[in-house]
C-alpha cells in the first residue's frame, strides 16, 4: 500500500482543491452569475457529453489499464498504445458524419421540452470527444504510475478556467451564450494538455501502426467495457439528462447542486482509484490474488473511514450551507444531498470491487451488472421523477446502487473467494450513525458560518477519537 497511499494522498489533496474550486463555482458563482436556465443548460450539456464519452472512445481508457501489463516487450507495448489512439476514430468519424447529416432532427428531439438546448447540440459531441481522449491519455500515464499531474489537469484545470469565465460573465466581458461555447473550448484545451504530457511520460519509439497480436481479445474486451462504461455513466448522469425531458431545465441546476455537495464523499475513492486500479490489474495479471484481496479489504475500510467523516460534515451542516448559498429555490435539493450521500457511502464500501471485475477473467460480468443498473435507473427515474421530482431521481440512484452493490460483492465472493468486510466495518457504520443522529439535531449558533465551524470541529474531534480508540483503521 506504500505507493498507493503516497499517490493517493497527493491525489486526494488535488481532488479536494478541485472540489473546493468547483464548490465555489457550483454553490455561489453559477447560482449568482448565470440564470437558472443557463446553469441547467451547462449541466445538461456536460452530462450528456459524459454519457456519450465511453462509446466514442471504445472504452480504451479501461482497455489500456487491462492489457498494458500483459505485454513484456517494449515494442509490443508501443503497438498496443498506438492502437488505442486509432481505434476510437472508427466510431468517432461515422457518428460525427451521422450527427452532421441528421443534426436538425437530433437537436429538435433533445430540445422538445426546453428550446434553449437546440442551438448548443453540436457542443455535446465536441466535448464528448475531448473528454474521451483526455481519459485515454490519462490512462496512458496511469499505467506508468504517473497519475498526479494528470489528476491535477483533470480536477483543477477545467474548474479554474470555468471560474475565470464566470467572472467574465459577471463583469459583462462575455454573455451567457459566449460562456457556453468557451466552456467547450476549455475541454478541448484540457485534452491537448493531457496529450502532450502523456507523450512526455512515455513516447513510443515508432509511430508506425501495427495491430497487436491479441487484437481480437482487445476488441472483445473493449466491446463489453464500452457498454459497461456507458451503462456506468448512465447511472451517474442520466438523471441530469432525463430531468429536462420531464421538468423545467432550471431544476437540473437545483438537482446538480445537491449531487455536487454529496459527491464530495467520493473524493477518497476517486483519489485512490487513480493508482490502485493499475496496481490491481498488475497483481491480477501476475496471479497474485493474495495481494488483490489485501488491497480489496484495505481500500474498503480506508475509504469508509474517510468517507464517513465527509458524510457527517456534509449532512450535519447541509441546512446551514444552503443558507450561505442564499438562493431559496436551490433548497429543493437538501433531501437530494442526504439520499445521494448514502449512495456514495455504499459505493465506497465496494473498494476495489470494480477494478477486480474489469481486470479479471470475469470482466463480462461487470458489463452485465452495469447494463442492468442502467436499465433499472432509467425505469425507476421514469416513475419516481414523475412522482417526486428531483428527489425521485436521487431515490432511484440510491436503490440501484444499494441493490447492485450487494450483488457485486456476493459475486466476487463466490467467484474469487474475496470479500472486503470484517466486524470493524459494522462497528464503523454504527459510529457514523450515532454521530449523525447526535449532531444533525444540534444548532449552536444562528449564524450559519459560525454554526458550521463549531459543529464541524466537534464532529472531527469526536469521530477521530472513536476511530482511534476503537482501532477501526490503521491507515487513518
Give a description of the structure.
- With 476 residues, the chain is mainly α.
- It has helices spanning 2-33, 36-56, 60-67, 74-86, 89-101, 103-110, 121-142, 148-170, 176-201, 215-246, 250-263, 267-285, 289-315, 318-325, 334-349, 353-359, 363-388, 390-416, 423-439, 448-469.
- α8 runs antiparallel to α9 (176-201).
CA-CA gap between termini? 13 Å
Biggest pleated sheet: none
- Summed up, the helix count is 20
Average predicted confidence as pLDDT = 83
The ordered H/E elements are: HHHHHHHHHHHHHHHHHHHH
Short key terms for the protein model shown above:
mainly alpha
Layout of helices and strands:
Blueprint: H1 2-33, H2 36-56, H3 60-67, H4 74-86, H5 89-101, H6 103-110, H7 121-142, H8 148-170, H9 176-201, H10 215-246, H11 250-263, H12 267-285, H13 289-315, H14 318-325, H15 334-349, H16 353-359, H17 363-388, H18 390-416, H19 423-439, H20 448-469
Helix pairs in contact: 1-8, 1-11, 1-12, 2-7, 2-10, 2-11, 3-4, 3-7, 3-10, 7-9, 8-9, 10-11, 10-17, 10-18, 11-15, 12-13, 13-15, 13-19, 13-20, 14-20, 15-18, 16-17, 17-18, 19-20
Please sum up the structure shown.
Helix content is 80%, strand content 0%. The protein is an all-alpha fold. Helix 3 (60-67) runs antiparallel to helix 4 (74-86), helix 13 (289-315) packs antiparallel against helix 15 (334-349) and helix 19 packs antiparallel against helix 20 (448-469).
